[in-house]
């Protein structure tokens, strides 16, 4: 019952009342310093009151709980050394990490906790000491891996075509080799080494990704931008395409160019995932994700309808014409592709002035140019501009959350010997087996003095404001006659307030 009340207090809108009641309930807890403390009991979602405060973005309760966990070691003038308890904060040996819970929640208030002490200092320590070097090394290793895969695709086994052409439009001169013919020369053996590296890399990707999907859940794992959702889809699809290509190569099945092409595009697009480790590029990748999975996905539905309609019209118009004179619409798939290019203004309207074109082609193309180029493309630009304005206010905040998610991901996947625990053990200070983060805080005395001066000004302004209100209440019945005097009264009171404030400053100096 006491633990349930603690969880309810974390969700209370009245933060001051909740903090006082929280302390009152803990004062009656007989095991508040032991493993059976009410603060360490989790709810049905596995959240303790401390983790619940982080997930809900309750910064007041979070700071209150952190003040209870800190220990002042020594103070010397403006310098103060403080130890913050990292229990439930550090992701080390935590099945449900506090940092991972914050970055995976959809509440923007929760991400503000990443800028509070000691979370900000802990993340900075982890990222600068281990996260950034390991992430840069991983990015370099992935780029070299993609270069190896690309070279294997460029020099894939091909042989000259021996069969006769069945059509004048048939332009194929090379075909895929059989498996027995693919690995005979020294160059083929070098390519085989690269292909083995590519397949092993694809298997490693699946082995690393599948456990996280099962642990976090597919909806959260693929749906959260901060956790890298779209990039996880890209890299898993890439690994599957590599395995499909391998099966087609081993079975000597024609058409391996299809999964190989998809794998090349997806593999190189996944390089953008590593831009999150750099402050210059990270926020822009967030902008790209928001536009692709927000505006562009909705726009593609409208674009598909327009392309299907006009491509069908173009195909019907040129169905009776000779394809050698105007071959952009000689069959339906080519009509779809040509209409798509026209939609994006990649090519101009196809025309052959040596022959007579159907009259309906000019009418349909005129309507297509008005709807596609002038209307829909400008609509897409306006939508993207609106998304850019909305995301620009929080892209830096999202980027910092991505850095935290990347740090937690690396800490989980790397061996313990490569990522030692952050902080200091409490035994060095007689605080038990818990781990603490040591932070040196500097208190500026000039800043404190100016705060006192500000409070003095506020107090004088408050007194004069209350006096002015009393006088205005007395003369409410003849307000229209007292308007000039009221104005003079406010000026005199503000002048007196300023005079008293400057007197306080002069006296303190």
UniProtKB/TrEMBL annotation:
Domain of life according to the entry: Eukaryota
Spans through the membrane: 134-158, 192-210, 231-251, 257-275, 296-318, 359-381
Annotated localization: Membrane
Protein name in the entry: TRPV5 protein
GO terms (BP aspect): calcium ion import across plasma membrane
All residue ranges annotated as the Ion transport domain in the record: 135-393
Organism, as annotated: Ramphastos sulfuratus
Membrane-related topology note: Multi-pass membrane protein
UniProt keyword annotations, A-Z: ANK repeat, Membrane, Metal-binding, Phosphoprotein, Repeat, Transmembrane, Transmembrane helix
InterPro entries: Ankyrin_rpt-contain_sf (IPR036770), Ion_trans_dom (IPR005821), TRPV (IPR024862), TRPV5 (IPR008346), TRPV5/TRPV6 (IPR008344)
GO cellular component, one term: plasma membrane
Gene that encodes it: Trpv5
Principal cellular location given in the protein's record: membrane
GO molecular function: calcium channel activity; metal ion binding
